[in-house]
Design a protein that fits this description.
single chain; 158 residues; alpha/beta; Rossmann fold; 6 helices; 4 strands; globular; protein-tyrosine-phosphatase; Ptyr_pPase_sf; hydrolase; LMW_PTPase; EC 3.1.3.48
């Protein structure tokens, strides 16, 4: 595997780290592997309510149908060390981004972005499917798949 980018690792973040960010992690890892991009990807949440829990079964079920692995994923909260340890931190929505900006040391603030915006997507936020009904998890997967492909292409160009 080769590394084309100065970005060596990415942290993807949502609120509880059980739906959107594990899905972002699984899809982004798969897209990076497909393109032989050697990059580490992890996920975390802005809250610790689900600390240690596996991803939401509905996220896993939707993702596995499309061939994504959620193996060895467990919810964790973003730590102060994450701001220095990761080259890029991509948030699911504006509230998560705002929450991280509030606690991020100023020297690392340039690492914080919205996941979809960084991908150049028209829609800025990945909606939270946790309390929703129906195809919310499928929609989230569609958005994340498209954005992940764009993010990997962007990294390969840099």
């Amino acid at each position: 595997m080769t590394t084309h980018s100065t970005i060596q690792n990415i942290l993807v973040v949502c609120m509880g780290n059980i739906c959107r960010s594990p899905t972002m992690e699984a899809v982004l890892k798969a897209k990076a592997d497909t393109h032989n991009l050697n990059i580490e990807i992890d996920s975390a949440g802005t809250i610790n309510y689900h600390q240690g829990n596996a991803p939401d079964k509905r996220s896993v079920q939707a993702g596995k149908k499309r061939g994504y692995s959620f193996a060895n994923m467990h919810s964790r909260q973003v730590t102060q060390n994450d701001f220095a340890a990761f080259d890029l931190i991509l948030c699911a929505d504006k509230q998560n981004l705002s929450d991280l900006k509030a606690v991020c040391p100023s020297e690392h603030a340039n690492k914080l972005h919205l996941f979809l915006e960084y991908a150049g997507a028209e829609q800025q936020e990945v909606p939270d499917p946790y309390y929703g009904q129906g195809d919310g998890f499928e929609l989230v997967l569609d958005l994340i798949e498209n954005a992940s492909e764009r993010i990997v292409e962007r990294l390969l160009r840099s």
